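Regression test attached.
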Amino acid sequence: MTAAPVAIPEAPTPPGGVRRWLNSPVGAQVTAAVVFIGAWQLLTLIAPRVPGPIEVMQFLFVEITGGSHGGIVRGQFFEHFAITLQRFSLGLFFGFVSGLLVGILIGSSTLARALLNDTVLVLLTMPAFVWAFLTTMWFGITWQAPVLTVAFASFPFVAINVAQGVRAIAPELRHMSTAFEVGRWKHFRHLTVPAVAGYIFAGLRFAIIIGWNGILLSEWFSGQAGVGFRTRYWFDANRYRGFVGWVIVFIVFIVLVDRVILNRLQARAFRWRDQKEVDFIEIQEQQVGL
Amino acid sequence: MTDTVAESIQELDQAQVLRTAAGSRRRRYLAVLLGWLVFIGLWWLLSLWVDSEARLPSPGRVFQEIVIILQGDFWTQFWASIVRVVAGFLAAVLIGTPVGFFMGRSKYWGNFLQSPVIVAGSIPGLTYAVMAFVVFGISFWGPVLAVGLIAMPYVAINVAEGVRGVDRRLVEMSTAYGRNETQVFRHVTVPSVLPFVFAGVRLSFSLAWKVGTLTEVFGSSKGIGFQIRRNYQLFNMPGVIAWVLLFVLFMLLIERFILVRLERRLFRWRQWEREA
Amino acid sequence: MARVAIDRLSKTFPPPTKGGDPVVAIGDISLDVEGNVFVSIVGPSGCGKSTLLNILSGVETPTRGSASVTEGDRPAHLGYVFQDARLLPWRTVMDNMMYVRDDGDAGAAKAALYLDMVGLSHTHDMFPGQLSGGMQQRVGIARAFSVEPDLLLMDEPFSHLDAITARSLRDHLQELWSATRKTVLFVTHDVVEAVQLSDRIIVLAPGGRIFDDITIDLPPRSPRQKPLVSRRGWPLRASGRRGPPPPSRGTRRR
């Protein structure tokens, strides 16, 4: 903007390979990462209780390999992670399928919408930790509690998105197909599916982010195993390097799944969409976060 | 002239739209009411079948509990939570807005801050809640910190988006008419960024409340989250459900009656733009 | 009387793609406009018409050469009508009119007067989004006249509108011009429009060079009169010739 009221320290662009690289998008991001790790290291100097990056990496190495070089003995890591993943996928499946069904119902029938919309909104407003508490009170410390927490927490997000998608099949498009006498199957295949698929996908992404938070909470409060349990185990033992290590593990997992895998898939599957729209959906998605 | 004809057609349409809208609105209210009745009815049947207050209390029992809470310390507890969430939110807006400005104005800072902001946005709320507890213990500031941390990325992303979206043509127009930078900032930049800030606040609002209450579960001796946790530990199911329902109703009321109206009033001009 | 002095002006934009050639928008133009004349600049798209106006209004800076707009010995006061209305969507019509002026209540009366002249006195408190495209453009025109500029720049102000609205706005413009007699630089790609409105037409060629400079000397016309273009060709081509234009005298109608 020519009319900047605040002076922005724009990085200069001198010649020379290194400097130019530093100013490139990749360079800026790498700089950001280095600055972050540096700041973390500095923080440990001020507050000695905060575990430093090296300490945490050492812990993770032991947790993953069991302390043996070459990974002959396996550490705690895989067991807990596998258990969590298993419950997570099961809960996600239930939440997604029921959300899909209810979403289609709400989207296609006005009556169903009037009847169910507020219920879904109420569920949407419930914090995930409430589900962790309720399921524990219902089932005790069992595998059902985390699975149902994931299912309950992700269900309303899927339902709302799918309903929106079904309703958004633009009437103009429908009229167009009628005008050109497009067949029923073709109509479904080329119109309904692509139009709704984007919303279903967005719903799935929500479900994954929300569900991941849900399972961590459930395992934290009432687990005997799993990522959330293990995080709490180290926290209760006052071993913050373990706590921070596991926090990094579950953050890296969700960032990898969401940003790297799902984001790419979505970009590929919905090339026809306006990029702006995709960006907006992403922003929105993050906003619902948990 | 063509304009007058178009205007009168528009007026006709509006009158008709208003009339049909009134009818369908009445019908919609009825259906929504029916929806709530069905919801409560199903809950009641389910509670009869479960037949255990500790697992699923009847709606009547929860209603009793709600009345007790409302007569008791409802407002003190709610007020405690509200103050913390609002304080955290203010901090998020105060820090997130300038950060977003940097990201939107400068390509370099946009790239620099992009990944941190995105990663911060995907961090599960549990992390913030526990972190706030570790830093502050049982304190007023824990929830404030957690809410601030969770809402900040959204505000920043939205402001950046808004700054990038400032219409260059309007800036050019202002230059051509000799407006100075302060005037451009006040009349062009701020009004075009404001809806984005508001969107960021609105969308992260429920998120912030959830994390705020979660933090109260960990480290607080007051507030809605603390009350839910206390009842959970006492294994008092009606209490848990009553507090959760109060929380949900409160959120929906704020969302529907305050935020939506505020947005409509602040951005009256957008209504027309959307219709056009 | 405003004076526009353009001396060997060039404007080059950086190449749009990496390794491409820089884009020459204006290549070495010299031009002199003085007095209360209506000057049209016509030419195919991409010949630097809009860039020229942007340089004159200070939105862009020239690569080489100079361009100045003066009134006596001070910089001239400008009005600008754009292709699109460019109203602030979040301000009412009246607030949009007031945005471009620095006086308070005294200015409000003036703004109201010009809104009235374009037939929009009932829209003061409406938002631009509530107006049709033609009405928005009328606000844009009223805004430009209301600052009582020494020089009025107009950049294809009617090209986004349908033919009927454009014609009625052209009439509005002629009435306003007859009433105020500002110096006007009017960019268009529509030759008929240029002939209808102007005293002088400057034809630009691709690459931003002056191809032709025509002075039109016509008997007084009423605003609604059809332009005097015959099908046989260009009877109006009075002083057309290639190359740098002669120092121009503003030729008035009358």
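Expected vs. actual: identical. Chain B touches chain C at residues 1-3, 6, 169-170, 172-173, 175-179, 183, 187-188, 191-192, 267-273, 275-276 (CB under 8 Å).
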